[in-house]
Specification:
Blueprint: H1 2-6, H2 15-38, H3 43-49, H4 53-58, H5 60-79, H6 81-84, H7 88-102, H8 108-139, H9 141-150, H10 154-168, H11 173-187, H12 193-205, H13 215-224, H14 230-235, H15 237-252, H16 254-258
Length: about 260
């Protein structure tokens, strides 16, 4: 959306390109990292370790009704926007409100406070990144980057895309999309615009694993219980290279891919 907004391109028709870009990689990497470990797991022991008390008490339909509501409203928001054009914030707000009556009661204010405490470090990083990008704009550095990106020789254009966008993502993947994604998109006007923009967004996503911010790596480390995210980054070197190459190939053959659907 950031790249599209930068070149006045409507955010329409991205469903299939994004599916083609993300689903195959997600399935392949999930099998790559998890299959060898899953094969050794005793399924019965995993089931025994799960807590089904809430599920047995309230039932599946009642517990999952907030997610079902969100899913249905998201579909209606796209298929009938004039009638159900609620917008994502309101849809998630309605789903969250429904959780208060479909499962275990919880203290809303306490839960909200805990949520703010969890996201505050990330919000601080994003605020700092936003200030940095504005300083770049005010001092002319952003314009300098844009001009040089557009003047890159065609032979080096794709190398620059694969290298510079993720590296700049160390500051912010969103900032990378804004500062570098837009000029590179202008340099790719000869390609299919939708597929090229979707591919650039895929490559820009690698910036969330670039230190020092490395937001995605930090979250992943917390999920698996690691104090430092260095171990996560080591596992992602090869997948990151594959993602970059995959995105570049989609840009190179964007018109041929478009002809397939």
């Amino acid at each position: 959306m950031i790249i599209g907004g930068g070149i006045d391109m409507p955010y329409v028709g991205f469903e299939i390109p994004l599916i083609l870009l993300t689903f195959p990689l997600a399935i392949a990497f999930a099998l790559w990292f998890g299959w060898r470990n899953v094969r050794k797991v005793d399924r019965s022991k995993v089931v025994e370790s799960l807590d089904f008390s809430a599920l047995n008490q309230y039932g599946a339909w009642r517990l999952f009704s907030p997610l079902i509501l969100i899913f249905v409203l998201m579909i209606l928001d796209k298929t009938a926007p004039r009638v159900f054009g609620l917008g994502m914030p309101l849809i998630f707000l309605l789903g969250t409100a429904l959780t208060w009556v479909t499962g275990k009661r919880f203290e809303i204010l306490k839960s909200a406070k805990k949520a703010i405490e969890d996201v505050l470090p990330v919000l601080g990083i994003l605020v700092g990144v936003g200030m940095f990008i504005q300083i770049m704009t005010a001092t002319g550095v952003r314009g300098f980057i844009v001009v040089n990106a557009l003047s890159v020789p065609p032979a080096l254009l794709y190398v620059m895309i694969a290298v510079s966008i993720p590296l700049f993502g160390a500051i912010s993947a969103f900032g990378s999309s804004s500062v570098l994604g837009v000029p590179f998109m202008l340099a790719l006007l000869g390609k299919d615009q939708i597929i090229a923009a979707a591919s650039l967004s895929l490559i820009a996503a690698l910036g969330d694993f670039m230190p020092p911010t490395a937001l995605a790596a930090i979250f992943a480390a917390k999920v698996v219980g690691l104090e430092k995210y260095g171990g996560v980054l080591k596992k992602l070197v090869v997948p990151g290279l594959i993602i970059a190459v995959y995105g570049i190939l989609f840009i190179l053959f964007s018109k041929q891919i478009r002809a397939l659907y």
